[in-house]
Amino acid sequence: MFFSQCFLRITWLVVRWEHVSLRRAREFANKMSKVDFTSAWPGVHMNVSVRLKGIFTAQKGYFKAFLPILSSITYYFCLWLILPEKGGGLVSFSHEELGVLVNTCIGRRNDYALQRDDGGYLRAGRVLTYDLVLAHLAGRVTLGTYVIDEQGGCRFAVFDCDKRGGLVDLVDVQERLAADGIVSHLEASRRGGHLWVFLASLVSPAQLRRWLLPYCPEGMEFFPKQDSTLAGPGSLVRVPLGVHRLTGERYPFVRLDRSEWFRRLVPVASEVGASLAWLSTVQRVTPPAAIPSPEREHAQDATKKNTLQKNVAVLTRPTARMTIQEWCAQQDALGVIGRYVVLDRSGLGCCPFGWHHSDGKDTHPSLWVHEPSRPGGACWYCHTWKQGGSVFDFLRLYYGLEARELWQRIQEGGHL
Hints:
Layout: H1 2-33, H2 48-60, H3 63-86, H4 95-105, E1 113-115, E2 121-123, H5 130-138, E3 143-146, E4 154-161, H6 166-179, E5 185-188, E6 193-203, H7 205-212, E7 221-223, E8 236-238, E9 253-258, E10 263-267, H8 272-279, H9 294-302, H10 308-311, H11 324-329, H12 333-337, E11 348-349, E12 367-369, E13 380-382, E14 387-389, H13 391-399, H14 403-411
Antiparallel strand pairs: 1-2, 1-3, 3-8, 4-6, 4-7, 5-6, 5-9, 9-10, 11-12, 12-13, 13-14
Helix pairs in contact: 1-3, 2-3, 4-8
């Protein structure tokens, strides 16, 4: 009886130890598969998690009978399966390595968004910390960053092609940029890809859009979408090198590998640490010293009309103590703006401010002119730009003048 009890106790301890080993193997494999691109990027290696899932599923029917043997085999097989790809040990990141990602691919730092399991995003409304960046790289959370930072500038621009085969289209854009001396970098995504242009210094979103938006073909998005953050935080993009919550996959930066017979896209690195090292070496682009302002170009086209009075006979001259809002209240919004834009019966027309439209031209009427809700208030709105203003705002943008200069000329009788 004594020996029987000892045998049963030893058997129970062995089974218990083997059960713990199996659980640790699962946790270890799951943790490792979230750190390395080689276990998640299709075409580089098979997905480790899929292989492990098959192992655990195969064990399920024979769990009780063969647990002491199979769980140990599974545990050491997991080590053999993963460690050669990882280089051994768990991956950790220094403050400097985290800083590479923050300084290169993070826009706004006093706010961020978290990706949900359905692929959507939830705005956090809090300051981004290095602990969150580490959690992003470890796959515990997935961050989204607002392209325009808290100072109203951008340190990068992104072309987004969210469709099957989108990387191929982005390669075309990349080659067009390269032809003009603009270096860009491809990142794969769930359905297409992103093309990043990293900047040597902060650039205003309006200036950035004037410079790079002409390279964006129809059917592709360009970030930032806004000229400012007056109406909200602006455009959001997924921070690279993390795990997409909807697919559970990591999508790396890729490069075009040209051979004698074919071209293919290959990851720039096989794991996160190496990707951060590569990211620290990317070339940052300096925008041209003088980017042509569409406002000034439009103003030059308008100089042949010489005066506001010649174009807009309905404008009235303000009195000495009249404010701009009071002056706007005296104007016929449809009559004034209708001298510059062909409007239909609903007040719709093509926006003349082409710098926030694809290819610099509004091909589908997006400008709506309406009666202001209050005297001297907003009377026009561009649905593409998602901004609008008063009669005075329209004239200021149309002629490319500062508010003080335009007001002075209106007071002097409208002479330009």
